[in-house]
Amino acid sequence: MKCEIIVIGDELLIGQVVDTNSAWMAAELNKQGWDVTHIATINDEADTIKDAISSAFSRVDAVLMTGGLGPTSDDVTKPVLCQYFGGKMIFSQEVYEQNLRYFAGRGLQMNESTRRQAEVPDVCTVIANPVGTAPVMWFEREGKVLVAMPGVPHEMRVAMKGDVLERLRRFAGDNDAILHRTLMVFRNTESGLSERLTDFEASLPSCIKLAYLPIPGVVRLRLTARGSNEPELSKILDEMVEKLHHILGKDVFYNGDTTLAGAVGAILKERGLTLATAESCTGGNIAHEITAIAGSSAYFKGAVVAYSNEVKQQVLGVDAQDLHNYGAVSEPVVSAMAAGVLRTMNVDCAIATSGIAGPDGGTPDKPVGTVWIAVNCRDEQRKECVHFSGSRSYIIERATQRALMMLIDLLIG
After folding, report:
1. DSSP letters of 39-79?
2. Nearest CA to 5 among 28, 34, 26, 32?
């Protein structure tokens, strides 16, 4: 089945809000074996919405839409859909009672604007929204379907996982099993990895496809199998994964699809090791990435955001003379920070960063984007000076990912 995604909101077009919905939805649809052929971001204008729907229906059978379902006057999607599909607005007692329960559970009173959220087109099937007030609406016409969902990411994801995907499977008449296996690979570029796997790809059974999904420093290899015999597909996938391990060896550092922080956590947990961070230029972002993983308390003990030299000295034991002679962004200082947090937190592993994230603070010797990183694991330490370019947030993110990669490299040797 081919699908298109329409994302509605003036705030998306002026850059006030970043669209994360379409990427998440496309990934979920792809997991089902469906192709997303087009993604459109449009404004909250009736004619624009109608044109986008008509254009999408000329190409595909399923359209997924988010946004414009709120209770305020600038949210016009619901009446536009009602008009487009030739219906009239009715009051849904079911939606109203659902919203009453939603408000009561939060100790809030429903106002008139929110009460109107229970008004829905009579030509749609209403799907309950257990985490919000805007109902999900399913429209069908001439063998095609449109699903309108809230623009709030959490609400959209609950709807997709809870009911929408299953309804789409029934609509598509798709009874095939779809299985995935993902391996995370480092020390390879995407193009270099593709060359290494030329013969492997040529040998793949017709029911299996290989996708390359790069992120900075890592390539995720995803094998997807589709067919009617799920046990047989699973067996074939396992055989292909084993072949990839044989070809790539220790360049495969994790089996599964997760973040770098998730992979670090899995390795630490498997080996019974603990971790702490000492961060200057990354400002706690590494700790944030690690603690975003459920269960991270099993291996992560804490962090010191040592932004000032005083904290570097007083908390982490960095030598004042090293700070004076070499500066905060230097090998001796970042090495001492890693050793200091290892000792202070009484952990097995440590990550330390010190750098210049910008946009100011650079010098000819240490331009903006210069970052020193040290990782320790018991008696071993690795240090590296890296140089990134771009915005402050980009430099912080790249330094975070590089630090996590260095720890993985140290852990798996």
Report:
1. EEEE-S-HHHHHHHHHHHHTT-SEEEEES--SSSTT--HHH
2. 26
Identify the segments of the chain with pLDDT beneath 50: none
Q: CA separation (Å) from 103 to 7, 13, 92, 131, 182?
A: 27, 31, 17, 10, 41
Q: Write down the pLDDT at residue 71.
A: 83
| Domain co-membership, 290 together with 220 | no
Write out the DSSP string of 333-379: HHHHHHHHHHHHHT-SEEEEEEE--SSS---SSS-TTEEEEEEEETT
pLDDT score recorded for residue 255: 96
Distance CA 59, CA 2 (A): 8
Q: Is 189 helix (H, G, I), strand (E, B) or coil?
A: coil
Give me the helix-helix angle, 46-57 and 77-84, nearest 10°: 50
Task: Give yes or no: residues 221 and 270 share one domain.
Answer: no
The DSSP annotation for 261-273 comes to HHHHHHHHHHHT-
b/e per residue 312-327 (b: at least 16 CB within 10 A): bbebbebeeebbeeeb
pLDDT for 190: 95
Q: Mark whether 11 and 125 lie in a shared domain.
A: yes
Is 23 among the domain residues?
A: yes
Considering its fold, how many domains does the chain have in total?
A: 3
Q: Which amino acid is it at 395?
A: I
The pLDDT assigned to 350 comes to 98
Domain's final residue, options 233, 255, 277: 255
Give the predicted TM-score (pTM) of the model: 0.79
In this prediction, residue 175 carries a pLDDT of 67
- Residues 405, 327 share a domain: yes
60 φ, ψ (degrees, to nearest 5): -135, 170
Q: Give the total residue count for the chain.
A: 413
Both 188 and 151 in one domain: the answer is: no
pLDDT in tens, 272-301: 999 999 999 999 999 999 999 999 999 999
C-beta of residue 275 within 8 angstroms of C-beta of residue 299: yes
37 and 154 inside one domain: yes
401 and 265 both lie in a single domain: yes
Domain that holds residue 47: 2-172
Which strand (E) or helix (H) includes residue 24?
helix 21-31
Q: If residue 382 lies in a helix (H) or strand (E), which one and from where to where?
A: strand 380-387
pLDDT at 111: 85
The whole-angstrom distance between residue 154's C-alpha and the CA centroid of its chain comes to 13
